[in-house]
Amino acid sequence: MSGNQASAVPQGDIRGRTRSEFESDTDQPAATRRRLEETRRPQWTMSSSVEDILLGGSTNRNNMKLNDFLRSNLGDRGVVDTNENVAMEMFFQDPEMFIQNERLLRIITTSLSYKELEAINKLHHEGVSSLEEWRDYEGKDTVTPLVSEKLNRALMQLLCEERREAGERAARENQVGFTLTTTIRCVLFRGRVRVKDMKLNDFLTMEMECRGILRANWNVLLKEFFIDPTRYIPDAGVLGEIQTTVAYARMEKTVREEMGLEEVVRRLQENGVDFLEQWRDYEGKDTVAPVTRRKLNGVLTQVLREERREAEERAVREEQLGITLTTTIRGVLFRGRVRVKDMKLNDFLTMEMECRGILRANWNVLLKEFFIDPTRYIPDAGVLGEIQTTVAYARMEKTVREEMGLEEVVRRLQENGVDFLEQWRDYEGKDTVAPVTRRKLNGVLTQVLREERREAEERAVREEQLGITLTATIRGVLFRGRVRVKDMKLNDFLTMEMECRGILSANWNVLLKEFFIDPTRYIPDAGVLGEIQTTVAYARMEKTVREEMGLEEVVRRLQENGVDFLEQWRDYEGKDTVAPVTRRKLNGVLTQVLREERREAEERAVREEQLGIT
């Protein structure tokens, strides 16, 4: 059928159409939108038959006989025995042969039921059995308007649903995060429906009320059509009307944008740029159109900043984890900070310099290498000069040099056998480390030792809350509820209380109970020892240690006399040989135990009495 015939479909004012079915109802609440989607979800598919759509799924109307049709629609009027076996298909060919009454014949042929059956018969003869074939049918104007409208409505509903689903897929894609392995095509087309791949006949159905449809164009895509519209719609009048519509202008603009993006993808692929990671190191960014370049740079910056944010979160989580004496020096010094020295130069230039200075040769260069000799990696003096005058450059250089300084500290300490915090505790060369770093390490070490001290005190408190019995040891009674500082290491004490003065590696395993017997043996420097001995902390610790050593001596002597447990102390005759304070402590605990036993015995007696035992 010619384009002229196709163009005769009743149109209305297609220029007046401004709102496209391609637009989604994104301004509606989600729940409302879901309910609307359920109610408007099409019941047909492209493979649905024309017969099913027009007859509502009825299986017997299309093959009915003439008399059956008359009985169903006209209450037996016109029924004659001679027409009993006449098929409706035969009647369509020559109605006057079977119904001679002109008035009755006019009533029959003008009824909707007749027109539907007639249209089905006509379409079948012209090879139109399904909705898909109707979409590309050029003779829509030869079909009764009511029938044509019904089929077009089903087709429109189906195309709109397909479009809606495509929009939802695009929206879901847009919510998925980008990574450096995301393709350039995916970045540029993410979140948009690719209308360039829409079929021309679908567009004409949805936007032009089927104007201009030709069966020969059944598989033509919009990206092909907009290259040469006259090739696919040769009727100049029809094409002219279509081209004056807002829908045409909007669609042409969108398709050309997409074709432009495809061209960008193709050229970048020719230059070995398929993924976002390769775009990062691409030197030819200036050859890409500004809008597209900004899109790619924006997404790349977003990805790099997300990686940076995740690195910062990891650093925060690391900082919240407890430090112990087995923590490495590197772990202490870099704890809670993102190591920017290991950031790639091109990533820095992307995030902070809008990609200025990027060279593909630098794809794997780290900032710690760059700041040693910037001119080696950015030889263009003008570009480098611009970069070096920025606040971001100065801030990053300062941070990287700080980190490189910390790495040098780690290296030197490792050369001296100091890899862990425990080894730092006993290290005599602390004064060779820069003050800021030394304070950091000493502060963390002090924190660890105080935490160990706190845990020891909590254990002592828990022990004190446990009940004592006659089988409790004398040592357990005397040391109950107190932290035994006599077993603290000398170097730990000097770290916590003396800011590491007097520490010697040789004393790494010396305990305070050994130190206070002969302090000069362990700190031979008289000046340093004198300073330490004048402090309140020294006096307090010496007093506590000597008290504990006195208690240990009591335990030893009692053990020599066969008194290891509280029960044995009860019967011990030599109590007067023990110092009064210690004797009162042991007697007080023993009395408490005996009274508790007495109380329990009385409670048992009461319970027995209540049970009626005599």
TrEMBL record:
It comes from the Eukaryota. Residues 60-123, 194-258, 339-403, 484-548 form the DUF7578 domain. InterPro entries: DUF7578, Trypano_RHS. Residues 1-43 are annotated as: Disordered. NCBIfam families: Trypano_RHS (TIGR01631). This is Putative retrotransposon hot spot (RHS) protein.
